[in-house]
């Protein structure tokens, strides 16, 4: 699959439509099938016990699948999450950003399916794995 938008254009677009949260994320790589994202972890992502919260990890997985979807469908803010399953495997390392490796498994007319694997930056150990399905609005003729 070939991207229909560059990572720079997509990052600018997401900063425009999601200004309240986009600064937390960075698109590191994007090629139409694989996307690498970073969550810039800060105090608001930390839960009691000094680790990154589950909602923050879910957010990174969801945003990564959204970016993977928009990479192949373009600027469609109305693409929405229709399904998510996430497995939390271990505590992320304290004080480290989270890295998501997203693989777009299916790009159909109405749905995309993405597998996302989360790790603490610099670690090979998975902290979570998610499968997400996005519904893509139909093209108006």
TrEMBL record:
Q: Which InterPro entries match?
A: ACOT13, HotDog_dom_sf, PAAI_dom, Thioestr_dom
Q: Which GO-annotated molecular functions does the record name?
A: fatty acyl-CoA hydrolase activity
Outline the extent of the Thioesterase domain: 49-123
Please provide the record's keywords in A-Z order.
Answer: Hydrolase
NCBIfam families assigned to the protein according to its UniProt record, in alphabetical order: unchar_dom_1
Q: What family classification does the UniProt entry report for this protein?
A: Belongs to the thioesterase PaaI family.
Q: What is this protein called?
A: PaaI family thioesterase
Upper classification of the source organism reads:
Bacteria, Pseudomonadati, Pseudomonadota, Alphaproteobacteria, Rhodobacterales
